[in-house]
Amino acid sequence: MSRVREGTVFQQTYRMHRANLGNRLNRFSSFALFLSLVVVNTYVATRAAAGDAARTLRDYVPKPGVFPPAGAGVSLNGDLVLADPINRRGAIRPGGDMPRHHFAMLPYGMVRHHGAPADIRDLPPGIHLHGRFLRPMEEEENVVPEALRKGNSSGIHNHAVVLEDDVSFYSRQGRTWKVRGFEQGGGPAPRLKLSVDPTGPEIEGGINKPALFDIDDSTRIWKNRQLVARDQITPGQQIHVNLTWGPFDSLATTDVWLDDDSLAACREIQRQKHLRLIRSRFLPGWVDAVTNHDTGGGEVTVTFFGGMDPSLYTDVRDMKGKSPRICNAENTLRTWGYHQEYSSPASILEWTEQKDPPFGSSGFQMRLRVKQMLDGFRPGHVVRVKGPWSYVLLPHDECIMNPEDLKRPGN
Amino acid sequence: MSKTRSFLSPSVAAFALILSLANAQADLDPAARDFLKSNCYPCHDAAKQKGKLRLDDLSTDFTNPQIAEKWSEVAAKLTAGEMPPKEETQPAAKEVDRFVEYLTSQIRDGAAARMARRGPVQHDRLSRREYAHTVYDFLGVVFDVEAPGAFHEDPLWHGFDHIGALLATSANHLDRYLGAADAVIDLAFPDQETASETVRKSAGDGKRHLLQLGEGWGAVDIRVHGRYRIKVRASGLPAFTGRRPRLSLWHDRHKKPFAGIELSTPGPDPETIEIEGLFPAGHYHLRNHGRSQDHPNGAYKLFRNETVDATTPLAALQGGFLASRTKLVDEQGRPVMPLLLIDWVEVEGPLTTEAIQARRAGLMPRKENDPAELRACLRRFAELAWRRPVADAELERYEKLVATERSAGESFRAACRSALAGMLVARSFFNLEAGSPGENRARLNPHELASRLSYFLWSSMPDERLFDAARAGELTNREKLAREFNRMIADPRFDRFLDSFPRQWLQLHRVGMFQPDPDLYPDYDPWLQDSMVMETIASFTELFRRNLPLREAVDSNWTVLNSRLAIHYRLPPPATNGFVRVEMPPASGRGGLLTHASVLSLTSDGTRHRPVHRGAWLSETILAHTPPPPPPNVNPIEPITGNRPKTTIRSQLKSHATDRTCISCHARIDPLGLAFENFDAIGRWRDTERVRGGIGADPVVDASGELPDGRRFANAVEFKRFLAADSRLAEAFVEQLATYALRRILTVDDRDLVRAIVQATRTDEHRIQSLVRALVLSELFSRR
User: pTM here?
Assistant: First the structure.
């Protein structure tokens, strides 16, 4: 039995309280310790889970017929150093000593140039690009062969879901550049530089601090839809720029737009190129579902890929009473030769529009009745749909004319 | 002028008037005369002659075209309600109906009498179908009468292709007969026989040729018309729904199959099929019949034209370079359409059987300088070709022809061929002759009777046994005639009757005449169309072979169908390939010829059914009563458009039941067609009528109706029951049969003889075979 020391009441009380306090403190300490452990563990676990989730998202493997979740893959940027427009492939040079990053476009991968929908073939060599890259689709792991991924830590993320030049990347996210003035750079290769401040929100993967871009007589300077001299650039102007490689890890300007009209004019030219391309190659999408009838016909449900000019979708939607045609295509979006002949006439049964579609999807889905099902009309397979556009024969090397053309050429 | 003369003149005039009236319309029906007196004479007599028309003295000689035309106009104006004029007293609707019906029947009888007017000798030209059968049965020669430039198509009379009065012979016909005769004789007696050869076309060692639906392969050349044996080694793979492939031997020029078989092998392992038959010359290929590139529902272009390894599983035939071609297998590896895999096709021929050789024996002389043999051969040939005894004098011109040809440098054999060809261009060959010059014979002689019998049952000439029976005078003996009948219906040649009579009687040539719109009827395809007709032929064959009562033609619980029709009727496929008799479930609403898709669709216009046409067809074919044509300027039924509520065709025909102009005819026509409202334009069952335009839901169909005698029916089942019990059924069928057999339109003079045939089979429930036998044994059959 423990003895309680006698003392004054206060002392006793104090002692008692102290004892109680001590007990309480002990309990509190334990509790605090426990709590802190919990908090720390939770934090760590959350961080770990977030890390796992982030890794999962980063390393997401696309599946045929399923658009990727938002945030999948990694962001990379670099100069375009290789382009294979027929197979929608290429390579960018991230800068420094980093090896080239070879890539293939996902079927729904989109390209933007001058703020308008575009194709690899529209991008000038050397242009600086921002891209989002995912791992290859199932069974497409060797589209970019291992030899071309060697030494590239991001090499496995070699399927692009979006590629855009600087003006597309920044203007899409509300960014312009405010001119501070010109500077003469120093160092071993002194060059004239354009000094700018970023105006607009912070952009992940972009330049978010004042920058110096090389500028010289090769830079195109646009004002009032015309090319003008460099002296038209004055401090305080809000401008847009496109960039390319510059020495010693700098970026050099290829184009400077001093007003929105000039950029709009360039955008419109690119948009027209895109319309001409898609109208002649047909609108791509993939098959969500098929219903086979037993005499060779059936129904095909198609979701169109995103990133196209809106008029292309409405052209098809509004065909009413006329017959769209549907042919199959590879994941490179290549079609077979004489793609109108090797297509099936169809009638539109239903057209639906999805709000907030996943990235890569246009949100437009169409159900068609076809008299003749083609072998490529299977869920997850890419198809292309001809709207009310004139038929043109494509360059023969773009098409699959024989079994040999199916073999993928090396990059 | 004396008082007597002055009194007599008007009296004489009146008397003459009365006499003329009495003579002109002496045989007018009393009720009809009363009708005319009350409603027409007041304005159209000698005194008034309104519209410059007198009806009081209009002759009733309906065999006169002008007279018949005038009475036809009278009927039209009464039907249209134009006469009597509105301001005059209107006769009762029933009286008008009766008078119009009387006039129509008189006009029709007059037309028949005009057409049937014959001299002492009657020549009824053979149809081209009969010509083809005759030359084959005579000489074993296949002649393609339907080849472009061969023979004209024969004009049809209500479906019948060999009505004597319609088959005129022109110089152009003779020109074609000359060409045909030369070709036939050259094939029968060539200088050198065409050797039979066997040609095989193979997909290759270890290979098979794949045929998707509508695709063809295996081009085969048949250079000479003849009998061939065709073998095919193939597999037939049904689609994942069970739809079976049909392997057809397709003639490129005629664009139709000359033979075919539904093929469904248990697995990919092939079986060998053998088809033997008569084939006209031409390019053929094997086809997976069901669609064709020419058909609006079959405009396939992307045939795979693929040869596969025999060991490749079907499920592997996807992807790769052929991904742009048509789909063969679904996501589970099952065929998405009926498929054929062909290993090889082999054609052997032309085959010359001993029977064919025997037919030609004794027809071509062997010795060049033996006039007796020449005459004997010419006589034998002529007796067979002309189907009667031949006088010496008839042969002289052919003997002279041989001599003339020889002196012109032709070989003996070629000269004989010319003579024989000449015999095939004689009118006695390509006509059925009956009668003798200088006498008005009422009955056929034995040879004429033999020909009538053989062309009725075989669409061809008599055989040796029938000739013998004719020569021996046996055909006038009822028992012996019956024996010949029994022998002939057991002969394979009788299949020609079983094919051709229902086609003509039921006007099956109209099936597919207006091709169904492919957007409205995407399931309609050429194989379905062929199957529809084959169903009716097969069902009639069943009725005949089992000697079933006539009422089962109208109302029964079975049909004979194949897998394609089973799909069309939404029934399970038959257990075996080909045409099989199946019991129809009561819920299907089908049974009997009237609910065959062929019958239901042949009156459609390609977009919709036409109930009035259905009724008119039924009246004509089943009740042997052709309704009068509609009056001119009748407004067509307008399609429903805009904001009008959707409604049935039936409801738009309401005026037929209310408008005086329409009732007289449509009360008898419409119910016969409206009973089948549950069947759409291609014979599918429906509960609602699809209406393209307008607003609202598709309306529910109404298949009820009221017969002219007041009996009501709720649907086709009840209607068929009434019709099957109709006393007119047997008489109408015998009329159709007699039209086919006698090759002419029946007249009022035949009515009693027809009724005698009906009476003879009454206790036998008017069984089909019994009816045909009774016709052959009847007085009617023996008369000219």
Answer: 0.82
